[in-house]
Design brief:
Four copies of one chain form a homotetramer. With 198 residues, the first copy, chain A, is mainly alpha-helical. Helix content of chain A is 76%, strand content 0%. The longest helix of chain A has 29 residues. Chain A is globular, with a radius of gyration of 19 Å. The relative contact order of chain A is 0.12. The model of chain A has no long low-confidence stretch (mean pLDDT 87). Chains in contact: A-B, A-D, B-C, C-D.
């Protein structure tokens, strides 16, 4: 089964998710600059989520680039990931509007964890489909980055019960870890091509 | 006439439908966890519709994969399907906000039936265009799954007049039946390829 | 200059236009069937606009199918068409919410006229780019259907000052005229291929 | 790394940005023509932003057409551009709703400047990736148009503190400068092809 339409559909959904988040930045009814002040946390929250969704799109792109074919289970794992991604605008708006209060920050973390798990499931199914010795299998073998992220998310949630700003800061830390695109695939592919041509 | 742009357009519309549904999850204005409680039925309703739209995309993908060319009637049958799919966010929001009350659950079922009929029309036109002995014709010959779904939808609507939660449960049953992607095409294609190469 | 990305972008914009119209169908806050009654004109208005946007997408698809290359002017003519298409959700919502009252029906007609003109400009530029003796030039030479539509729109607007329901009925008439996809291109292409191969 | 999915994703996001802006044109609840009057500045504001986003799409299209491959940094530079583009609907709505008052017009200019800078960064990274003597490098060598735009934006912002309508007029001036698609690439490509074939 071809991967083309899966990529196109995922791109469409992720493009919509990343864009409708901006609708939470409600246009103020007055023209004075003071009207923007309460929007600052909403804006900060939007910027972080934009980066998160960008990271997911980026890694999704890399991973599917290394994919040769898909099956029904992979399609559903992908939809499962898109489902949790689609909840990011909701928690983003809630967190921003309530100035990074306890519960919104915790829920934001839970949604991030669910996204992380959904992504891991997708990776696992792709590796199973392509074989452990495939490019995908060796590149994503030990998902250290993913495990560290999960741990930090968990710490962030616990910490948020006491000081929610600290939890939010930890989400920024994870975003920084992932900001650099996943070079594992790129490196592997570069080496394979060298072997091929060299 | 090529099918490429029909696929792309359908993907776009379905991607938007599946994503704007989440806008019904209105961000609560307060930060306490209690604010999420009234959103639980909206969330459950959203999750079910996400799966339904996912199923339609999945099967649409499989069916058009087996399609070689299209004509004007098929284009309109496809738009007709997209029209009924586009009403899913509306009934989803209505059903969730009213905690699965009688009329919203009934209307949800009616929209599902209309989608089911629209899909059957699309299948019929595709088979007529490709011939009954084509891959599509033999794979979709007796649409047992489709008939069973229609019957359950009808029962669900009748049952909802008495107990709407039961109707909702029946919609979940149909979703489970379809959750497994349509292997008819995949099986047929596998066999054809075997015949070809074997 | 390739036409691929122009098609993709147009598909994206049209897909969003056709889908966000449904957001005007505001979810009623009560669960009784009475709550749907005031939505009936909004629904009728939505259905008509869905067909209109579908017609534009359909014809746009056919026309660009016969197009070989584009230039900067064509890109802007295309964006100009998308601009007027993007106003359809607004007039649709206004017309539906006000039960086909005079001014909304008139404005709906004005937007349809502007779309019609924008489409004609796009056709003209495409013909100039490909030459009058090209497939496009001969197929769209005398745009009879387009002229008739324009005339009916104009009559509909005048009539709406007295009886707006009649104006609305005339919009349905034009939709029926166009409902059948533009076979001019298909016919021409069929003949060209015959000439080629025969 | 292929550029195909980057183009597709950018097209998707830009298509959504250009279309959701129209949601700021809120449907009036009454049917009389007077209800449209307060929407005129919102409409004018929308039309200008539609042209701006169209210009960005147009130039983005041209630039990526001349691009052969991309890397991780280019992906993020592209997402950075999409981020600032996604803020255009917000400032558009704010400016329109407040009849081109001082602060909204200033903020609109700031967002335009940020877009301009984000675009320049993307160009710079693409040139660095392809080499200064590449098609991209020579075509975009001295970005005179970009520099002039930045200067006018800056003047517009300063001027808006005294007379915001004048600032708005300057934004129209810049749009006119860019309205003509970027022929630098087209010219260069034409010449290269001549050299190749001549």
């Amino acid at each position: 089964m071809g991967k083309g339409r899966l990529e196109a559909f995922s791109d469409g959904v992720i493009a919509i998710i990343i864009t409708i988040m901006v609708l939470e930045l409600k246009v103020p009814h007055h023209a004075d600059i003071e009207g923007l002040k309460p929007l600052i946390p909403v804006f900060v929250s939007y910027a972080l989520s934009f980066i998160y969704v960008g990271i997911y799109w980026n890694n999704h792109h890399h991973m599917l680039h290394a994919t040769k074919s898909i099956n029904g289970a992979i399609m559903w794992a992908n939809l499962h990931l898109l489902f949790w991604l689609s909840l990011i605008p909701f928690v983003t708006g809630w967190m921003g509007e309530n100035h990074f209060a306890k519960w919104p920050v915790i829920c934001y973390g839970i949604v991030l964890i669910m996204n992380s798990i959904a992504y891991a499931i997708l990776v696992k199914l792709l590796i199973r489909h392509h074989g452990e010795h495939s490019l995908l299998g060796t590149a994503f073998g030990a998902d250290t980055k993913g495990r560290i992220s999960l741990a930090i998310y968990a710490i962030a949630i616990v910490v948020s019960f006491i000081q929610s700003w600290l939890g939010f800061a930890l989400y920024i830390v994870v975003a920084c870890i992932w900001f650099i695109p996943d070079r594992r695939i790129e490196n592997k592919m570069g080496k394979e091509e060298e072997l091929h041509h060299g």
